[in-house]
Design goal:
This protein is α/β, with parallel strands linked by helices. The chain is 35% helix and 19% strand. The protein has 2 domains: 112 residues, Aspartate Aminotransferase, domain 1, CATH 3.90.1150; 241 residues, 3-Layer(aba) Sandwich (Aspartate Aminotransferase, domain 2), CATH 3.40.640. The chain is built from 12 helices and 17 strands. A 7-stranded mixed β-sheet has the order 4-12-11-10-7-5-6, with helices on both faces. Strands 1-2-3-15 form a 4-stranded mixed β-sheet.
Amino acid sequence: MDALMPTYARLDLAFERGEGPYLFTTDGTRYLDFGTGIAVTALGHAHPKLVAVLAEQAGRLWHTSNLYRIGPQERLAARLVEHSFADRVFFCNSGAEASEGVIKTVRRFHYHHGNSERVEVIVTDGAFHGRTLAGLAAGGNEAHRAGFTPLASGFVRVPYGDLEATRAAVTDRTAAVFVEPLQGESGIVTAPQGYLAGLRSLCDEHGILLALDEVQTGVGRTGRFLACEWEEVSPDVAGLAKGLGSGFPIGAVLATERAAVGMVPGTHGSTFGGNFLASAVADAVVEEILSPGFLAGVEQAGARLRDGLERLQNQHPGVISEVRGRGLMLGMTAAVPAADLYARFREHRLLTVPAGGDTVRMLPPLNIEHAHVDETLAITEAVFRTFR
């Protein structure tokens, strides 16, 4: 690994193939993957439909750039519009780029309407919006910012879930409120019921935009296509990525016609965004997730997993103190050193994801079966027993 820039604290663990919810190392050891590349491989590994779509498109055409029409991109955009709040879609390559696109869209909206002083975006403690300079400025993790100042200006921070603090932060320079419906990187932090609806009303009252980061929560992760649907809230702009391509890099900015009014030719672009390969795969992913019964299955599997984790929490007190989240985006707050818990899951061949210092996330494929949930609960019980 000497040739790689050491920006990751990589484990000495290498995989060579995957099948469904399982990963296999170079020596054939099988792991149950409840990390999914940090909520990315939404349909598991080597999904037959995705493999076939990718192979077919790869044999036809990979890339032409957005100077020309791209059929798979147009089909994917139409599908996203049909099944979301949005009227317009911009495609990019990642969640960080989606966040950049969201921020540019809300600022451009006010510029278009002659309110160029409205440039500030209200963001929250604990937020994560990617690792670009603007993403770091919007995010709430000081450790991520060290050594990267000066950061982009124009962000005002308030506590997550605090509607009154948000209201107090609104000024005549405010362009938008930008939040995650459920915070992922800071440890599966859930907002109070009614928070998003309150933000929607607040934004409408002051003529500002509601922008959501659905990079991790979107595309079915919580049991709805977008997590904001749990509160029946429609934002003006939202960013998607992670599960959208189930491992193939693609992100998207979704916007209403009204919010997208300033995004005209020349205001934004992406060389690779929404190319033939990415769009073809993502369209197949979205088609599968929106198929009859799929999201209900996510909700059922999530409830089974959460119920089992809470039962084990009660049976083995002192290992975890709380189970949080929604659907198949769950976090366990560790009452023991979180690094130890994370490592022992791995020793038992279950892959999880650390977050927020004291949280272990479970982010399995969205198409897991009840047998996979039960396998996970059996492993979890064995891991909890090691802390006696």
